[in-house]
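Section 5.1 Outputs to date
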Amino acid sequence: MDEDAPVDPDDPETIQWHRDATTSRSVRLLWSFGVGTFFAMIAIVVAWRLYELALQGGFEPVVVATVAAIAVTILSLAVDPRAERRLQSLATRLSLSAPSERGLERAIDAAVATLAMGVVIGGLMGLGRLALEVEPLSRIGPGPFTGLAALLLPVALVAFVLSSFLRSSGVLDRDEGVLYLRDPDHAIDLDVIVDVSIRELGDAAVVTLTYAQPDGQYVPGPRRIVVPPAVADELAQTVRGTV
């Protein structure tokens, strides 16, 4: 049951799917938010430390200009539809191994998310400082602003874990009556599934599988999987047609 098998992608009785940051908007947004928040917090700490050191030598304009140049570069890459091609060309000229197009897309997503979350976190921290000096904000105090900035870290962790949960890849072979899953690899005989319940979550469907227990024995296999809604409907129809 747990051994994979080759599947003909041209077989009309097979339905393939692949959900990741490239094919699913929800996975892409959750992944970008999670990674961007972590990188933004690290970048803010590093930039602030460099700025404090620059104050001692009078080089703070250099630090500010460098941060501004990085931000402008990220924005230009985000709006340029040929950014991946240009980065691949640059890597070739520098005698570096050219990254894949998918890898470049993820890198740009992470950079843009880092910039966006850096603005958000920096803005909250700035409001916290203003709350100590400006009269209307002093009544509130810096606590809510700094607390909200700190709360973004565990929220980002949850988003990152959720993006991993929502990723999936596999093949439903209705002719053979087998559901093949990837990462990790599983081959599930549909004959051992007695019920399927579906709960849609955005552009995904969380499918709960109920297995038979012949002679009271436990049947190994994933109890919940995430697939596109269309695949979930086909799986439910196939299982109910074979039970």
